[in-house]
Design a protein that fits this description.
homodimer, UDP-N-acetylmuramoyl-L-alanine:D-glutamate ligase, 12 helices, globular
Chain lengths: 331, 331
């Protein structure tokens, strides 16, 4: 069967609420800079009251990635849960308007659509505080076999380990994908997330559930509990089939059993907001991977998409990535 | 009595829903590029369904202006109506977080918080489609004498002529302001708006209700029904006490009975989105005016604020304007 999608993403469906903040704000509110913290409704209200004027943009890690795949011209779909409230409407509009298939109906009762209060410091770094709300309800029931089997790559976010039953959705999707001879890809999401679920993530990589792993430096160090990057990369090379390690302005590494290839980052004039950098790197790589490009070419698409998204506020591309890639002669 | 506020703004409380669109989209949907059209709920839904991925940012012309005044370090307040729905919450959070006084309680019943579907074309120009919703309900009842009398300038948007009873709010506020020996300022808002209420606006200027007028070139030409800018400027000089005419990249003119002074625009590397350019020009000028700066110095603050806001998506400043002005030695 010819794949109907290049990539299907499964993740938390989140609307980002982004505001600028200084370092003192993070310290005062006990936030670990650069990380994602889960918060309850009370804390969500307290943070929102304290934070500055904000903008609302659809987000969610895997959702950002599939939007990026579609922006490159790929066929993409997304599975996640929103409520039929205003932010749910915003999320559904934006992902569909980006050309991504999103079939799920919003829930009518229960918690509100998930949102992440994101503080962007003057250095462009983002610190996320996520109220999962309706996204908590993702379970294996939402995974349709024919949808997942129709995608060349099934892309899953590590954050799915947080909601109670989303892990079941993850594992069901991975099983369907492999049964249909499709690839399964995982992003480690966040160093603290890795810390919460280290053994399970490491198990998924070692036992072959994950065919393609995305991680950044701090996630990788957290996974292998070492402060030394080269040590971590060495273990990764032994345990993973194929991995892409992003290193911010130092570019990225493509790690296979027989070699490690380095790819440069694209120069960026001003880093405005790093939200979505990893998500969009994954988008470029996944698009290339699904279209059978060489890994280094795929990684360059990833670097291009990451550079675009950190040049403006928000975690989704502001320009058509296919156009950008063609201008740079990458497609 | 010392003024408690530099500027109090009265206007439609609107959340902007911004998306990129090409020129064909505007033509296909019958939109006049660069203008503001009023739409009903059905058309709002149709436009939203058709438009691309969007971002939500608080807007509203006079609201953007008072946020700009606060960003310069001025004391500002706003009067307008929202509903207690999600977008109403967003509007209230953002204007208060910007340091602007907003005392009104959201309405519990009736139409939803106003939103404007804004299409930004590749040249950075914006075309607005506004569903007024709750903003329709603004009336003289919302105007508190002690609030308006406490502001050095009362700033009113021409758009207030659109909702049924907002004009009464406008006229009541102007009367209070003059009784307290404060200044009244009006922006003509939009050439089509001028076309709808030409005689009334011209009357307000001639009879001295308006002490300080803001207009752009096309609004001015519409006001005096001429295609020749110099002709329009000549009539303006005879009829207005003090006027600021913005001319995009050509800068602005400060028009008084005895002279017309030209102020250059600030250079902008890339015009990303012109939404809010006029609103923020007014913010800079009003801040200077309220602080008794010379008109040319006030206009330079206006030009600076306009340049900042057109460099990114959205109609509110992304950087503290007081800092920018100090960097440029304008404050």
């Amino acid at each position: 069967m010819t794949p109907r999608y290049d990539v299907i993403g499964i993740g938390n469906a989140i609307v980002d609420v982004l505001a600028r903040a200084d370092e003192d704000f993070l310290v005062y509110h006990g936030m670990a800079k650069g990380s994602m913290s889960l918060i309850d409704e009370t804390r969500a209200e307290a943070i929102y009251s304290a934070m500055g004027p904000a903008i609302e943009i659809s987000g969610g890690s895997a959702a950002n990635t599939v939007v990026g795949v579609a922006s490159f011209g790929g066929k993409a779909a997304f599975i996640g849960i929103v409520k039929n409230d205003t932010l749910g409407g915003v999320f559904m509009h934006d992902i569909r308007a980006a050309g991504v298939g999103f079939a799920a109906s919003p829930i009518k009762d229960g918690p509100a659509t998930a949102r992440s209060y994101i503080l962007v410091t003057p250095d462009g770094e983002r610190t996320m505080n996520t109220y999962l709300g309706a996204a908590q309800l993702l379970s294996a029931a939402e995974i349709e076999e024919d949808e997942v089997a129709a995608a060349k790559v099934t892309y899953l976010e590590g954050y799915l380990w947080d909601p109670r039953n989303a892990k079941d959705a993850f594992l069901k999707a991975a099983k369907i994908a492999h049964k249909a001879s499709r690839a399964v890809s995982l992003t480690l999401s966040d160093a603290f997330c890795v810390d919460r679920y280290r053994d399970e993530f490491r198990g998924l990589i070692k036992d072959g559930t994950v065919d393609l792993l995305f991680a950044n430096e701090s996630e990788l160090k957290s996974l292998y509990q070492t402060a030394d990057f080269d040590t971590a990369a060495g273990v990764l090379q032994k345990e993973a089939k194929l991995a892409v390690v992003t290193r911010s302005e130092k570019g990225a590494l493509v790690v296979t059993c027989d070699k490690i290839e380095a790819i440069d980052a694209f120069p960026v004039e001003t880093v405005v907001d790093t939200t979505g950098a990893g998500d969009l790197f994954a988008a470029g790589f996944l698009y290339g991977f699904a279209r059978d490009l060489p890994h280094t070419a795929s990684a360059r698409l990833g670097a291009l998409a990451a550079a675009e998204v950190i040049s403006h506020l928000g975690a989704r591309p502001d320009r058509k990535l296919a156009d950008l890639a063609r201008e740079r002669k990458l497609l």
